[in-house]
Amino acid sequence: MKKFFILTAVSSLLLVPTIQFAQSKKDKDKKTDTAVAAPEKKPESAIKEYGKVITKDAISDDGLFTVHKVDKKYYFEIPNKLLDKDMLLVSRLSKLPSDLGGGYVNAGSETNEQLVVWSRFQDKILIKVKSYSSVADPSLPISISVKNNNYEPVLFAFDIVAFSNDSANTVIDVTKFYNSDVKAISGLSASMRDTYKVKGMDDSRSFITAMKSFPMNIEVIQDFTYNASNPPMMKDAETISIQMNQSMILLPEMPMKPRLADPRVGWFTMNQIDYGSNELKSDSKTFIRRWRLEPKDPEAYARGELVEPIKPIVYYLDPATPEKLRKYIKQGIEEWIKPFETAGFKNAIIAKDAPTKEEDPDFSPEDIRYSVIRYVASTTRNAVGPSVTDPRTGEIIESDVIWYHNHLRSYRNRYLLETGAANPSARTLNTSDEEMGEMMRFVIAHEVGHALGFPHNMGASCAYDTESYRNAAFTQKYGIAASLMDYARFNYIAQPGDKGVRFIRQMGPYDHYALNWGYRVIPNSTSAESEVPTLDKWILEKAGDPMYKFGKQSSTFDPTSQTEDIGNNSMKASTYGLKNLQYVAAHLSEWTSEVTNNYADLDELYKEMLDVWSRYVGHVVTNVGGLYENTKKPNQKGSIYDVVPKAKQQEAMQWLQNNAFDLPGWLVNVGTLKNIDYSGYAERFRNLQARHLNNVLSFERIGRLMDAEITGTNNYNALDLLQDMRKGIWKEANSASNVSIYRRNLQRAYIERMSFLMNEELRTDRTKDYYNVSQSDVRALVRGELSRLKVILSAAKNGAVNAETKYHYQDCIQRIEKILNPK
Fold first, then answer.
1. Distance between CA atoms of 485 and 493, rounded to whole angstroms?
2. What's the CA gap between 632 and 536, in Å, rounded?
3. d(CA 614, CA 687)
């Protein structure tokens, strides 16, 4: 402040001569009156008396902070005792235009989640974003370094405008913060702004709609309008309007005791680096994400009795939910009651209708106090189960399961396509309400599973022998996967005549096991580390039993951990699946267009049938170059990664030649094609076959097969793969037979893929299976196979039966020569 006055005085002196020089002689000679100079007006303090800021006209709302509205301004009155306390700031879309984000963004979608603290700095209050990714015990000297090397960014700075009359609270004006386009709490991501060509927010059409304060949280609703050259809807308006909900919740003063994760049991997790470790390096810790469930009666719980939790998990149904679906949604939520009983809790999870306006005028699905099954009016076919988590411990604070209106249509279609052969009740476009309700019940239960902390367990469907799916007693007891968290929706293995089998998924034994592992309270444990021996013991008790194996969704190489598959033998399961699909294909018109006198459903289902065929093929492909992944600790026998046996890989390759690359005639239904499209028939099937051919001949798969030469002397290897592919794809060249249009397209796709293998490199940003292709065997093996193929085709072209085949071989020879000798 002193520097400011000194500079002002100096500046004034420098200006004096200039002013005098500019005066006219007349002004100099003019006699002036003597007057007393007015005292300098002191600047008004930015911090005012409380009553001058929060006037008698203020509309106030008490809660976590007292929220005041004075004219068009909003103020927070922050209790000083809450400064520097951890809070969670969650930003959600409340209303949005159709198709924003491509259909997977909806009302209720979270756009950001940040841990924040409100701190005082001189005459300002700062809202700072805090991280718990790096920690150390505050009593340790290294905690100083952790803090200094993880300096928290300031999200916004507010001038203090007043203090309460007792000085216990600090008042700040938050209007600008909530009425500006602050990127950290915005509903439009950087990619959306780029896609929709957003120029900026229009202040004249943007405003704070409401602020409400509750005992543990504050809810703010904002309506923002942006100028955009390419909006997702109503293009001529060049406008995007969204409504945002900002939830800020005070995190528990006493954090929940975290539980250390174990990769042998599937959980969503969070990571911390603990610099207070006694090891020679920082200690990386991974905690599971779970709700805080504590027994009301710890002594009874410790005795093994079922005990209610102090605070159960409550899900409310969105008021927008159609009446006829409500009971199935509630059943889906409460499917988890039994697994929670396995963990020692009764009535741990409850489904409720949302309160009416009369019962609770403040209820809002966006309010972070409430977990809601959101029902979204969207054409998207999906459902998701996200949650909000305390980043200090992994405690789930709230979650919203989102159900998109059109999702049941996907289930109706797949029910018909995958079970219609063996299940007469599925052979209709008007599936019964009871069956659709049963499907919805378990989709909701699956999404609630995510909201409880569970990721997908793609290994659960491999727990059961393939033949067991044809057994009524087995399927009625165990369902179609050991976990509801697998993508195993329907029993596509059961054959016509298999009576009483279950076709729709259900809760499995793994779900009880995993929930008990994550939620059961371990008496007398004092820390996360002290629980590990007990948690290890529970895992070892089930080790080796496939019903309790966790299979990662991220696996691209393990045939026992795949999406949308069932059974422990891909070739056998897919053979059964194709048999059923062939039956469905023959009756598809009968069940659709002949009933409706319209081709729209036939068109939709035929295209989805091709996707089903493709999935069955993909399950077999994974066996080639595959490895079994069995996560273990060193005190368990066996290795983590084991190569799929050579015989099984050879079986898979032969299956692909017979069922994928020899395109089945029943799939190419000319009668259907002529009624749903006027062109593109050959291209439709070329694309299907080429996709799997390229997948088999991928750099990653070939790389794993080259590694197999190191890990075993009798493993299926890269040369085996390339030779088997050549012999199968080009079998007509050895038999002087015509090549169909589908096979000609496939053979040209083969040559293009071999060219790719000869000329491209692996991209490190797209795969973890990186190796230096140029210095590997790949080029040599591909060159050798192409040279061999050229010799075979040179002989075959002379014996070709028809002109198309002859010209095709000549063309292929030219293509191969160009690859081998590009100059």
1. 19
2. 11
3. 11
Whether the per-residue pLDDT at 137 is higher than 70: the answer is yes
What is the rounded end-to-end Cα distance, in angstroms, of the chain?
77
Residue type, 567: G
- Under DSSP, is residue 118 helix (H, G, I), strand (E, B) or coil? strand
Q: What is the DSSP letter of 41?
A: P
Query: Token pair 């002004």 is at which residue?
Result: 27
Q: Look at residue 376 and give its three-state secondary structure.
A: strand
Residues 426/532, Cβ–Cβ less than 8 Å: no
CA dist 463 and 615 (Å) reads 19
Strands 349-353 and 313-317, by their bridges, are: parallel
Which helix (H) or strand (E) segment is 689 a member of? Answer: helix 681-696
CB 672 within 8 A of CB 591: no
DSSP state of 315: E
DSSP state of 44: P
The closest alpha carbon to 496, from 547, 426, 447, belongs to: 426
CA distance 777 to 537: 45
DSSP letter (8 states) at residue 510: H
State whether residue 51 is helix, strand or coil.
Answer: helix
Amino acid at position 374, single letter: R
Whole-model pTM: value is 0.88
Torsion of CA 659, 664, 667, 672, to 10 degrees: 170
**Residue 74 contacts residue 175 (beta carbons within 8 Å):** yes
**Cα separations in angstroms, 659 against 583, 614, 668, 691, 730:** 16, 11, 13, 14, 15
> Residues with Cβ < 8 Å from 590, sequence gap 6 or more?
none
Least confident of 294-298, 334-338, 400-404, 639-643: 400-404
Q: What is the pLDDT of residues 57-67, one digit of tens each?
A: 999 999 999 99
Name the average pLDDT for the chain. Answer: 91
Cα separation of 412 and 417, whole Å? Answer: 9
d(CA 613, CA 668): 12
- Give DSSP secondary structure letters for 67-116: EEEETTEEEEEEEGGGTT--EEEEEEEEE--TTGGGGT--TT-EEEEEEE
Q: Higher pLDDT residue, 70 or 383?
A: 70
Residue 661 and residue 728 in contact, taking contact as beta carbons nearer than 8 Å: yes
User: pLDDT for 215-263, tens place per residue?
Assistant: 999 999 999 999 999 999 899 999 999 999 999 999 999 999 999 999 9
Nearest to 560 by CA among 478, 627, 625: 627
* b/e 277-315 (16+ beta carbons within 10 angstroms → b): eeeeebeebebbbbbbbebeeeeebeeeeebebeeebeb
**What residues contact residue 256 under an 8 Å CB cut-off, 6+ apart?**
292, 390, 393, 394, 395
CB 125 within 8 A of CB 170: yes
Contacts for 485 with CB less than 8 Å, ≥ 6 apart: 266, 446, 449, 450, 454, 455, 456, 457, 460, 510, 511
In 3D space, the residue among 434, 429, 406, 411 whose CA is nearest the CA of residue 324 turns out to be 434
Spatial distance between the Cα atoms of 88 and 82, rounded to a whole number of angstroms: 13
* 248 closest CA partner among 59, 450, 58, 67: 67
What is the DSSP code (8-state) at residue 659? I
Q: Contact, 589 vs 416, CB < 8 A?
A: no
Residues forming beta bridges with residue 564, ordered by sequence position: none
Residues 6+ apart with CB under 8 A from 14: none
- Dihedrals phi, psi of 498, to nearest 5 degrees: -80, 105
CA-to-CA distance for 365 and 317, rounded, in angstroms? 9
The conformation of residue 548, written as its DSSP 8-state character, comes to G
CA dihedral angle for residue 301, residue 304, residue 306, residue 309, rounded to 10 degrees:
20
Cβ neighbours of residue 359 under 8 Å, at least 6 residues apart?
A: none
User: Pick the residue with more confidence: 321 or 728?
Assistant: 728
- C-alpha 812/C-alpha 755 separation (Å) is 12
Residue 649 DSSP one-character state: H
